[in-house]
Amino acid sequence: MQHALAERDAVARYPDEVRPYIVIGRAFLENRISALELDAVYCEWFTRDETCSQHRVRDALERRHTGDLDALIAAAKDALQSDDIVLVGFSRSCGIAMLRGARGEPDPVVSVAGEREGWTHHRDRGGRSEHRAACVAHSRLGTPAPRRRCGGAGNSGCATGRSRVVTAIETDYLVIGAGAAGMSFVDALIDADHDCDVVMVDRRHAPGGHWNDAYPFVQLHQAAACYGVNSRALGTDHLDERGLNAGLYQRANGVQICDYFRHVLDEHHMRSGQVRFFPMSNYLGLDTAEVAFVAALTGATTEVKVRRAIVDARYLEPTIPSRHIPSFAVDTDVRCVSVNELPDVTEPASGYTIVGGGKTGSDACTWLLENGVDPDNIRWVRARDAWMWNRAHVQPLDLVSDTIDGVARCVEASAEADSIDDLFTRLEAGDQLLRLDTRVAPTMYHGATVTVAELDLLRTIENVVRLGHVKTIRADEIVLERGSIPTDRRQLHVDCSAAGLGKAPARRIFEPGRITLQCISTVFPAFNAAVIGYLEGSRGDDEVAKSRLSPTNRYPDAAEDWIPNMRGQLASLDLWNAEPDMTTWLESSRLNIARGMFEKANEPQMADAITRLITYTEPALANLESLNAATA
Ligand SMILES: Cc1cc2nc3c(=O)[nH]c(=O)nc-3n(C[C@H](O)[C@H](O)[C@H](O)COP(=O)(O)OP(=O)(O)OC[C@H]3O[C@@H](n4cnc5c(N)ncnc54)[C@H](O)[C@@H]3O)c2cc1C
After folding, report:
1. Could you give the count of Cα atoms lying within 13 Å of 68 in the half-sphere of its Cβ?
2. Which residue's CA lies nearest to atom 22 of ligand 1?
3. Which pLDDT tens digit goes with each residue over 346-389?
């Protein structure tokens, strides 16, 4: 039996407690792309279930990727250790299908076929975008699915059905992803190793990764002076004179960041003669026998012989608003837009409901307020509150003493706190961590920075809804996990619920034939990628040294993740400070926020901060370990 459901119906039918689920794409089924390309989509769904093992599933799918639906289902069942899997299809750009493990759920949803084999598509009447078309295939998995294969043999079929064009190339490093992480890694690598050859591929049309699709008013939350790559400055390293960031180093907006990465690619990477870049190209999958990518526009396949390593520079790819499927249902006659569409508004709304308590939600609220919307006309749905860094203590160059002083305060608090609550009390009292509402204990920490002036502005919004995640938006009410609130047809609902940071579990950064870019030290991906590039370029085949110097420090998510994250930062610094060439490199790296601290070592504020750092680092490491154990 074949059902056709709109997306919201499918979501309503498989509520939160149903898990786990996987998203795969029709292009995957048709053998054009790998499961890993779709992380950004399925992460969204997984984030609502902290316990499910999305990446175990993904690894299994990658390893067994054949483009064959039967094999995929077998791999999914295996990884989920369940036969009870439900497959729901969503169509967007190249088409996405979603496999959901519906534990014990008797619903008979089963197999899926490509559009041309009879998917039934529904334009979502909520009108969120044309991506919203959704379809659900039929009955329980286990029935072999109709499928279509095209192109030649092997894993890399083509989208068009014409015979594929295959080119073979060789390189030392194949870098998948030309976002900030990939660009920064390559920059540091080719500066440390002038002989290596690098091929970069990205499915986007230009370098810069997610910044190419960011919402129009996006900005870095940190200083531009220490973002990007090592070899080129981003912006002018000036302080802002006015506005919410006054007195601190300027940030950069999305357009500036994209323009920057294009210049880096042309004027550094390509000019070096060491780098070839293939935009609009999908890499077919890690751990497959065939290492290849396919040009999206022509279907031509390039097979790559990699002499040293495949570099996974998309492992922590963030989920961003423009490519995210909200986890809540939206009724047909509701005004609901993604944050990217907010500046397209042409007529005033009766009010603005912002869904999402993270950085994107804060950005949307700030933007509305700065554009004259009365705070009483803004309602902010925050399922979780966040701890944020005080940006005044995350500043490079001339303000680095404030930063090191801030680190010293964190280390001191870490050494002396006798409980997790006490730790956060000390960090707040020490002016390091800030929160929007001092009456609410935050449960989230993503490492975002904020200024006190921004917080003061955001605090003018008094209508804050804390009833959990939104489940459905209807014409007259919003249904949340713990209750509902009224709404109306003229209200504009703004989806700011994309997860932001990638949530992949930590894995070894250096493995034989593979480098997976992740954080080692701070939560600044560009800096970490540069360190890894430098280690690869300078340590060559010394796998032991590379691994020793790059313990993975996972992105934080929950508030208490601050503890292992800070511990990881301190431990990495200890390791690096024992390597003379690393300290020289760090002192010259514009991405290193602490650069210049030793030059200022004789200035009173810096001297005092360094003394406290020396005194408290060891006790802090030990105490953070105990506090971390208490969270387990
Ligand atoms: C709103 C916002 C603000 C932020 N502000 C800051 C900040 O101030 N400071 C900071 O340090 N961080 C910030 N971040 C974090 C930010 O995500 C990182 O700085 C960085 O941009 C992430 O880069 P990335 O290379 O890991 O991911 P991406 O930019 O997503 O790049 C990954 C690339 O891999 C490509 N790709 C994926 N799969 C494939 C495949 N199969 N084949 C080919 N290509 C593929 C994708 O197309 C993409 O271009 C912010 C994030 C957001 C969302």
Report:
1. 11
2. 180
3. 999 999 999 999 999 999 999 999 999 999 999 999 999 999 99
